[in-house]
Amino acid sequence: MSVQEPLAVTITRPTRTQKIESPRRRTIRRFLRHRLALVGLIAIIAIIVLAIVGSEEAALAQNTEIANMPPGTITWTTKEFVKDMTTCTDPNDLSTCKNLRDANGKSVRAEVEHVQTFLLGTDGLGRDVLSRVLVGGRVSLIVAFASVLLSTLIGVIVGVISGYLGGRTDATLMRIVDVALSFPVILLLLVVSALIGPGLSTLILMIGVVTWARGARIVRGQVLALRSATFIEAAKVIGVSDRRMIISHVLPNTIAPIVVLATFGVASVVIFEAGLSYLGLGIQPPTPSWGNLVNGARTITVLERYIWQWVPAALAIVTMVLAVNFVGDGLRDAFDQRSTNDR
Amino acid sequence: MTTFIIRRILISIPVFLGITFIVFVFIALAPGDASSAFVRPEFAADPVAIAKVRERLGLDQPLPIRYIRWLGAALTGELGYRIDTGVAIADDVWRTLKNSAILMGTALIFGLLVGVPLGVLSAVRQYSKLDFLLTGITFLGISIPSFLLGLGGLWLLGLQLDLIPIGGMTTVGKENDFFDFLRHLALPALILGFGYAATFLRYTRASMLEVINSDYIATARAKGLPNRIVINRHAFRNALIPIITILALSLPELIGGAVVTEQVFTWPGMGQSLVDGVGNRDFYLIMGITLVLAFVVLLANLIADVAYGFADPRIRRS
Question: Domain B100-278 classified CATH 1.10.3720.10?
Fold first, then answer.
């Protein structure tokens, strides 16, 4: 019964003054609207800045006089030799002075009072926990970012080769990916770090080499889907070289899932490093890392009575992982071109 | 179905060999070998004596031959003896496997029973307050490493409130006391279970949302079926398929994934054994554990494949 209205089609062409939003701008805009992701990003930047400003010297300076002190201002005294100011060869440098001697020729010692504030207390060797957490963050973040970079690089290269070449190469590479994916990662990490000897670069190399397979599979899937895309065919028809094809046509279109995967990867490597170092198989002391700071809690005394020695590092790990996961979530939503939820 | 299963088993053999071989090579390439433990100290610097021991232990053979020898022995159940305690590795691995399975099995069941129903609820009431709350908790569950949560739990419940024992599986002298065992099991199982629950909730929610928005659900509703039947019969069944994947993928973790958490609670499981093996450079212990892990990984993948086959007839036929 309803009267069919004539189908009116109005095509509004974008005029020159109307801007069409590029996909990249759209992604950025959508990411910025994601409030939690923004909070996460700010938290990550703050953590990175703090990690950079941390003083390595303060993180390593031991002083057993003030071991295991809770957060606060600590006053302690030491007996030090009194310098004889008349003997100084350089009046501005006390170390050039000779010790003051009494009538018997013995060096005179006096009590010197020190006052220093430790915001997070000191550890079992009297080191400043705050500095250790900051410098530990630097170490943990270097491990996380570097190994994810490595793993992503391997993943992208294998994925592109596999997807682009196809055929027997693809079949072989994907078998290897199958093995790598079903590999109990923690087992290999434990074995390698214990047998080859842990260290910053070993750890990065190891984690990178063990975790590339997921990236490879995702990139391969993307490349396979792209291979039959019209614009790739068009590029082929006009004779674009393989190299150019991969670099300027295929790779840019695989960026989105890779960035998301890498972001979540950073979170999981932070956890990996923490776990390994907690077991004593990651970064070795005296170099601090978030993981080996928590390692202190393996003794009941530290766990129970010196909580300022392990809780800050534990909180740092949790904060970092949460922040990275928020950003990852935000990126995933922002990149999702299918999503109609264009807030 | 039978040919499908047989084909899957055949495919998993090279993967199994791959995993064990890679770990074998890694251990073999590491500096130092078992010979140092068998050379008498006074001959430690004598290359002839070391060579003799190496020959006796078969360490002078090329890698592939050593691997095949190990594999041959392993397949007949001969895994060697632990360096530190002298216990047969086969027995040790079996004991710790059971302990790990108890802990992780409890955690997994808890995770499933809590995560899946809440995931369905969260999806059915998308964007409700409950959904936001659950999604938020899920986020925490996924982001907080279980060993840190374990440390926190130990500190609060074990040391401050003195509610639970601070580690181990039994109290000395109370080995057969089931209640005592439960007290030891509760916290680690709950904490690992919380992580699982978060994962299952997340995937169940996502998978349910996808199904709920599909046409056939609209049809079922349009027919006038009650909501409960639409959700339970029509939606949930199809949403289960991705959950099976997650379940299968977490099975290997049942054994190997909780290494750190087992350490926190000094739970005498496989993770503990692995850390011992790695610490003592106990070649055969590590290989024994690797063997079991590789086997469990493949078994889990196989179970997942077969479960898909049952859940989705299209997979079976192709």
Answer: yes
